[in-house]
Description:
Distance between the termini of chain B: 15 Å
CATH topology of chain B: MetI-like fold
Order of helices and strands of chain A: EEHEHHHHHEHEHEEHHHEE
Largest sheet of chain B: none
CATH class of chain B: Mainly Alpha
Strand order of the largest sheet of chain A: 6-7-9-8
Number of helices of chain A: 11
Shape of chain A: elongated
Low-confidence stretches of chain B: 1-15, 294-317
CATH topology of the largest domain in chain A: Rossmann fold
Mean pLDDT of chain B: 80
Helix content of chain B: over 70%
Strand content of chain A: 5-15%
Number of strands of chain A: 9
Number of domains of chain B: 1
Mean pLDDT of chain A: 80
Structural class of chain B: mainly alpha
Radius of gyration of chain B: 24 Å
CATH architecture of chain B: Orthogonal Bundle
Radius of gyration of chain A: 21 Å
CATH class of the largest domain in chain A: Alpha Beta
Oligomer: heterotrimer
Shape of chain B: elongated
Low-confidence stretches of chain A: 2-9
Number of strands of chain B: 0
Amino acid sequence: MRLIPYPPGVIVGGEVIxxxxxxxxxxxxxxxxxxxxxxAMIFQEPTTSLNPVITxxxxxxxxxxxxxxxxxxxxGQEAVKLLKLVGIPDxxxxxxxxxxxxxxxxxxxxxxxxxxxxxxxxxxADEPTTSVDVTVQAQLLELINNLRTQFGTAVIxxxxxxxxxxxxxxxxxxMYAGRMVETGSTEVIYGQPKHPYTLGLMTSVPRLDLxxxxxxxxxxxxxxxxARLPTGCAFHPRCYLxxxxxxxxxxxxxxxxxxxxxxxxxxxxxxK
Amino acid sequence: MASASVATTYTVQxxxxxxxxxxxxxxxxxxKPLGTVGGVVVIILFLTGVFADVLAPYxxxxxxxxxxxxxxxxxxxxxxxxxxxxLLSRIIYGARISMYVGLAGSAIDVAIATxxxxxxxxxxxxxxxxxxxxxxxxxxxxxxxxYLTVMAILGPGLIQVIMVLGVSSGIRSSRTVRSAVIGIKxxxxxxxxxxxxxxxxxxxxxxxxxxxxxxxxxxxxxAMGGMxxxxxxLSFLGFGIPPPIPSWGGMLSGSGRTYMLQAPWMxxxxxxxxxxxxxxxxxxxxxMRDLLDPRLRGGLGRYSGVKRKMPKQLSQA
Amino acid sequence: MAGNNHLIDxxxxxxxxxxxxxxxxxxxxxxxAVDDVSFFIKKGxxxxxxxxxxxxxxxxxxxxxxxxxxxAGKVLxxxxxxxxxxxxxxxxxxxxxxxIFQDPYASLNPRxxxxxxxxxxMVVHGLxxxxxxxxxxxxxxxxxxxxxxxxxxxxHEFSGGQRxxxxxxxxxxxxxxxxxxxxxxxALDVSIQAQVISLLMRLREELHLTYLFIAHDLSVVRHISxxxxxxxxxxxxxxxxxxxxxxxPVHPYTQALLxxxxxxxxxxxxxxxRILLTGDVPSPVNPPSGCHFHPRCQRTGDECREQEPExxxxxxxxxxxxxxx
Lengths: 272, 317, 325
């Protein structure tokens, strides 16, 4: 999204290819266009992402006018339609309200409506449900899921909630200390994890379906300091499989199955 | 990632911080050049005040009629006034008065502000409402009006000036302390203290007071400049410190004004001294406020030095 | 309900927070945070308390510890009513019951060293003299798997998980018999959560503690609790043995709540029935009539709108407040 504030954040290298175009190479002007029209983002805290002193209608229609070039009248009508789409009851009336008059879940719905206002092809959801209750979380994810099938939008969900990933996601990238350590389809990642960190995560979360006698496995230690990463594999100080090589050499992603990659020298020894 | 969270996550391995005040001083020197200049001005003021007897070439009331209105010369570096008193000596002794007023006044200010602010902010409810209406009423009067009235009743004098200025501005600054206390009351560690069974006295002294030190230091520094200026105002108007004690404000008024055209140095030097000192103190106060900004509550520990602690590869822009 | 092996008995607990308005602070309404709630906690067990935000679970915990003065009802600690205690008596009673907080960042005074934080409760209760608790603090730190030399550090020098351990050490320092854990792991990283949960469980065994474990994360509650209480909008919905509740939830709200939590295993999760609730949790200022859950319930009938359901026994120690069971 190129939204990392500068300074301090600098994208040091690499490519971000969106539909064949490297987003890191294009101008700010073109990027702004893409941000509005092709890629949209929703954030963890809806309360701070919405402007508190402007009505929902104005915020939505502003975005619509900007990206779709609608006039004020149609933009207003479109805003109501969007609110209905994301399941806000009594949309005609509520569109005149200010963000604080909505509950957290409803605000997140408004955020989704904002994101949809430009028919994005890609929706990035950064911890979209961390600040809302479980039953509302389920509603929001169902909503995102329905919109995805309805409009064919690709969705990236950034989250620490393993359950949510299992339920709603097709493919998973597991990241640790700034690097991708494993990637594959959800079934494979949960069924046959091939990286000790992934396995550790899976077995360290309490599960609803397993009794309380189950002992949680514990990943010892703390996540590392990003300024002073351990040498070699960043996970090796916390890893139960670590060998000498892990502290000297950095493992690259290697194919361990069909469309399944793991960055670990001992990926074959990782057993559930 | 937001810079703050980078810092919070990884201060863990950082080496131990020096104590609060030492750390504050180091950061002042390192990060705030203008504030450091202000600090130097304040130190010069204090040194001058403390060692006035040694520094001053003449006594502050040593009258040499032959030197009346003499311009700056080798004998009187800054000249002499209408009674033939050495101006440099009077400025130096005036520094002592300014120091007294600044320090004692601010100390009274802070003491009263802390007391009222803590009580009002901590107990809240009816206590708070009653105290705050009183403070509001106090704020309605123009401060000069209060000063003049009280000084007219008490009569001029150094101690009277300090008391009046200190008490009056203490009541004003209690609002700052109060809001800081209310902000800190939101913190869960106060509930934690209550939950372990701590008494109110303990909560106030061990948990709240150390955490409002930042605004208190800010109040202290900023008040100092105001005190010195207001003392000068009062002395200028003849309600402050009576002659012959040399107060910069007093030197400006009276004879300073009368002889302005014949001996401009009589008004120039005290005015200049006053301006430099108050400017310096204000610079210091601003720097302190930046370093201890109450918005970064608990800041000195948690958010400070974000810049220094940025991961290397990120800060190389 | 008194007698036997109950450590805590909560009887008809009511907690209203007045909503005031205008210059005169006239009361215009009440936030009915906890509305007529009764349950007990047996010695040595962990009682889980779950619900969504605004259900009153945190308030219940605070009322038990007398951090809030309950509007009505009783909280019996070993048969003695805590709500009638005041001043010095209450302060002394606090020694037996401690609290572990959700936010490990906010609940530690940033100007105190770890050692002073952990030692303070002992000083407050006169167990040690001020400044003479080094040995005890070292022992407590070891108990929560921190190093004694860390005692001189300030809270900002610890990570989130370590801070939570400090909070636990502080609670343990006066050797309480009962600890309220208010969302103790929800602010921590996933990999750190397991460490803290395991620590809490180990300490319970070693020190024979009784926990009231408040959380919104049903998986965590399931893992640590012997019995579970489900609350919704200030009311009790269901109480049961933990295994029983998860295997056989009876209340429609409990069912929906459980089904909303995905299981981190796609194979298992796909086979579960999903119940999607509509709407948000209503405001506790103006809760719905009758059963508080009826506007979102799929099995609502007339009596749900009109009459408040009583807790009914439906199995072994399994109570449910629903007309439709």
